[in-house]
Amino acid sequence: MNKKLSVFAAVVAASAFFCQGADARDVRLKVVQAGVGAASTAGYFAIGGWQWNNGWRYNGGLTRLGAGVITTMGCAAITPMVATVVLNRPLTMREGHVVFADCVLPFVGGWLVNAAYDAHPEWEPGKPIKKHHKKTM
């Protein structure tokens, strides 16, 4: 059991390097995402009675899918709140969407949202939009 927990802890620590933060200059957002994601993963396994293989000790009628949905919803609800407290400011729309997407689709979700925001700068309120004018002859 100790070997499994140490492997789990190593995987959680290594996953912090892969978290896609909305603002690369602020490491605190990445740490919040890694921490809440690890807590959600721990909650998922706690619901199942800490069983890694076939059987679950939980007899409340909750399936693995149900546990996954509940912990994903919890992560998506709690991460923006924790990030707001840690950063001591309201999150930008981009940051809020990135932390939400990282809960739904870990590691890849934030990257996809950042790519979408980069492709559509008009989605970010308050940022000037560069208009390209074609020269006509």
Could you spell the SSE succession in H and E letters?
HHHHH
Question: Which range does the strand content fall in?
Answer: under 5%
The total domain count is 1
Q: Give start-end ranges of low-pLDDT stretches.
A: 10-24
Tally the helices.
Answer: 5
Structural class by SSE content: mainly alpha
State the major sheet.
none
What proportion of the residues is helical, as a percent range?
Answer: 55-70%
Taking Cα atoms only, what radius of gyration do you get, to the nearest Å?
19 Å
| N→C terminal distance | 75 Å
Q: What value does the average pLDDT take?
A: 78
The gross shape turns out to be elongated
Would you give an account of this structure?
The structure is a single chain. This protein has 137 residues and is mainly α. It has one domain. The protein is 60% helix and 0% strand. It contains five helices and no strands. The longest helix has 24 residues, at 64-87. The protein starts with a helix and ends in an 18-residue tail after the last helix. The relative contact order is 0.14. Residues 10-24 have low confidence and may be disordered.
Summarize this structure briefly.
The protein is mostly helical. Helix content is 60%, strand content 0%. The chain has one domain.
Features:
0% strand; 137 residues; mainly alpha
Topology:
Layout: H1 2-15, H2 27-47, H3 64-87, H4 93-104, H5 109-119
Helix pairs in contact: 2-3, 3-4, 4-5
